[in-house]
Design brief:
Layout lengths: L11 E5 L3 H12 L15 E3 L5 E5 L5 H6 L5 E5 H7 L4 E19 L4 H6 L4 E5 L2 H11 L3 E5 L6 H4 L5 E6 L3 H5 L2 E17 H6 L1 H15 L5
Parallel strand pairs: 1-3, 1-4, 6-7, 6-8
Antiparallel strand pairs: 2-3, 4-9, 5-8, 5-9
The structure holds adenosine monophosphate.
Length: 225
């Protein structure tokens, strides 16, 4: 069978990032009858097959998932709220919170730094973060003047070497902060991952996508009834 004889609307591409989002999405896919037959941790392949010849999974950086879906290179994907807020959500339909990869976005400082006083006195805070939009909105809402320093990783290092007074980062157990003598001084928002769907694909491939969205929705609800 050729992909050129009207089959293309039944082909689906799902964008996922390696690690926690991939692992936590597998049971949701299983609930939709889809089994990923290759492991991204042991394979270098970026396009993974599933038991359904019409469904393939692409493995991309977490921050790139919304971009692939927005442009229709993937029909749907799973992305953290942290990533979606930075992306802006343009061209994306966000039908469900999957309640996976949960953590929180927080402000942290070096142990001993008097954050409350610095904020109260209106000092200009230097804040290092990968989450520039979220940080900007958070401090603007509080009326705190900040100089934002964009980093791409290892934010925890910034206050330790004097690059910044504070960081805005995602925190799960808090172990990374503790290991680096940092303290969480403010929780900004809870974070979890959402299903995102390309808006055009939702219309053109509704028949294929809708049952998967519904299976994800059922499987991601808290199991108390
Ligand atoms: P933890 O030491 O458990 O607080 O984890 C902190 C680090 O793990 C953070 O700096 C993040 O890079 C990463 N992390 C933990 N949970 C998540 C998540 N749900 N989404 C993205 N990154 C996470």
């Amino acid at each position: 069978m050729s992909a050129f004889n009207g089959q293309s609307n039944s082909q689906l591409i799902l964008a996922l990032s390696k690690g926690r989002i991939f692992e936590d999405t597998l049971p949701l896919l299983e609930a939709a009858g889809i089994t990923v037959t290759e492991n991204p941790e042991t394979s270098r392949k970026l396009i993974l097959n599933t038991n359904d010849p019409n469904v393939r999974v692409i493995i991309v950086r977490a921050t790139d998932v919304p971009t692939y879906v927005q442009h229709g290179a993937a029909d749907f994907g799973v992305a953290g709220k942290d990533v979606l807020l930075e992306h802006g959500g343009e061209g994306l339909y966000q039908p469900i919170d999957l309640n996976i990869a949960t953590c929180r976005m927080s402000v942290a400082v070096k142990n001993g730094f008097d954050y409350e006083t610095a904020v109260r006195q209106g000092a200009r805070l230097r804040v290092a973060t990968k989450f520039v939009q979220t940080a900007r909105e958070h401090f603007a809402a509080k009326g705190v003047h900040v100089d934002l320093i964009k980093l791409y990783g290892s934010m925890e290092l910034a206050p330790l070497v004097g690059l910044s007074d504070a960081i805005v980062d995602v925190v799960s157990t808090g172990n990374t902060l503790r290991a680096n003598d940092l303290v969480e001084v403010e929780a900004i928002m809870p974070i979890s991952s959402r299903l995102i769907v390309n808006q055009a694909a939702l219309k053109l491939k509704r028949e294929r996508l809708q049952p998967i969205i519904e299976a994800f929705e059922r499987a991601s609800q808290p199991k108390s009834q």
